[in-house]
Write a structure and sequence with these properties.
Layout lengths: L9 E8 L2 E8 L2 H10 L2 H7 L8 E6 L4 E6 L7 H4 L7 H14 L4 E5 H13 L3 H8 L4 E7 L6 H14 L4 E6 L7 H4 L2 H12 L12 H24 L1
């Protein structure tokens, strides 16, 4: 059976409401819509977004638009405003695009916020299931850890994070996004020795992409402030 990338037959839009998100997939023609109805099931969508979806996935058909709308319950970690990441330079979006390209090449990818995976591994360690949890992650050719250092790590969290990095070293690929430079990583791994060992494993065989650009949020705020000041200045001149 010939594989067909989704973008060849449809485009998509997404949004959020409360603690849920929705993904609408719109086919370009009737033939594409027939393929979507047959193959794009709630189970497949939930599997694709397994790193973020904790609840059920519902599918709604809109044949007049040749579209399927999927409602992803419990997928935003407390709500849209609560789950926004510090991605001022677009690192997360860039890695999501890279993940799509890797999948198109037939590789498996697991994209997950670092804090979420660390908590899952802690729970596995508590239940004496950490080796099994690490073996399950071996099923993925590429593991993408988003926002390393976004939340400060406790000692037990740093330990399972280091164990994960050491287990994948020279066996499976790992991609990490972070706003912290290497000199700050001791705040993550809690000790100079563990920090040096983690960095040594990560940078060996690696490609480092530095997003040396200004924050688009800061630029937007500055533009808005400048725009707000112009009417005020005009009013002052008018009073004179």
């Amino acid at each position: 059976m010939k594989k067909l990338p989704l973008y060849a037959i449809a485009h998509a839009r997404s949004g959020d409401k409360g603690d849920g998100s929705n993904v609408g997939v719109l086919a370009y023609d009737d033939a594409g819509y027939a393929i979507l109805r047959e193959w794009l099931s709630p189970e497949r969508v939930k599997a694709h977004f397994s790193g973020i979806v904790r609840g059920k996935v519902e599918r709604f058909e809109m044949p007049n638009l040749r579209a399927l709308n999927f409602l992803l319950h419990d997928s935003l970690g407390g709500g849209g405003s609560a789950s926004l990441k510090t991605d001022a330079q677009g690192k997360t979006h860039a890695m999501a695009a890279l993940a799509d390209r890797i999948i198109e090449q037939g590789r498996s990818v697991y994209f997950v916020p670092t804090y979420q995976l660390v908590q899952d591994l802690l729970a596995a360690k508590r239940d004496l299931e950490l080796p099994r949890a690490l073996r399950k992650l071996d099923r993925f050719d590429v593991l993408i850890l988003d926002d390393l250092g976004y939340l400060k790590q406790r000692a037990n969290e740093a330990e399972v994070l280091f164990t994960l990095i050491a287990e994948r070293y020279e066996r499976r690929s790992i991609i990490i996004t972070s706003n912290m430079v290497f000199s700050q990583w001791e705040e993550i791994f809690q000790s100079p020795m563990a920090t040096a060992a983690a960095i040594d494993r990560i940078v060996h065989h690696s490609v480092i992409a530095e997003f040396d650009v200004s924050s688009y949020r800061t630029e937007a705020a500055q533009e808005k402030a400048a725009a707000d000041q112009k009417p005020a200045a005009s009013r002052r001149r008018a009073k004179k």
